[in-house]
Amino acid sequence: QVQLVESGGGLVQPGGSLRLSCEASGFTLAYYGVGWFRQAPGKEREGVSCMSSSDGSIYYADSVKGRFTISRDNAKKTVYLQMNRLKPEDTAVYYCATAVCTIVSISAKSDSWGQGTQVTVSS
After folding, report:
1. Cα dihedral across residues 8, 86, 42, 105: positive or negative
2. 3-state SS of the chain: helix, strand, coil percent to 5?
3. What is the pLDDT along the chain (123 residues), one digit of tens a residue?
4. Which of 33, 73, 94, 111 could form a disulfide with 52 if both were Cys (CB 3.0 to 4.6 A apart)?
């Protein structure tokens, strides 16, 4: 059973940091691009960052460039999203999914989503 499980969210003050984890099971993570997406209340889900499996291409949304860093550890079957200098507008439920990833675009491969992990940035 293909599954991706997100963790690491929480409540943090503006300017703080969090590291999200996305653990894969049921498939070989190394063969897939993986992306992080988020959905804020009342807004559509948006792509935040992704990393391809083929050529290592990395994408960041303009809103997170310079603050977020994506990485992957294929041996641990885990993809991470390090989020620094968090802003209130980063508040959302964050999801990971297999994705088609280039340096300029991200698209989820599936429309099946997990529960996500809540990130709340507030003082």
Report:
1. negative
2. 5, 50, 45
3. 789 999 999 999 999 999 999 999 999 988 999 999 999 999 999 999 999 998 889 999 999 999 999 999 999 999 999 999 999 999 999 999 999 999 999 999 987 888 999 999 999
4. 33
Long-range contacts of 108-112 (CB under 8 A, 24+ apart): 108/35, 108/37, 108/47, 109/32, 109/33
Q: List C-alpha distances in Å: 62 to 6, 8, 68.
A: 23, 23, 10
3-state secondary structure of 106: strand
Do residues 20 and 81 lie in contact, with contact meaning Cβ atoms separated by under 8 Å?
yes
Angle at the Cα of 61 from the Cα atoms of 18 and 58, rounded to 5 degrees: 85
Is 42 exposed, middle or buried, given 0-12, 13-18 or 19+ CB atoms closer than 10 A? Answer: exposed
Gyration radius from the chain CA atoms: 13
Q: For tokens 């999801």, what's the residue?
A: 95
Token pair in block for residue 27: 């498939």
And the tokens for 3?
């599954």
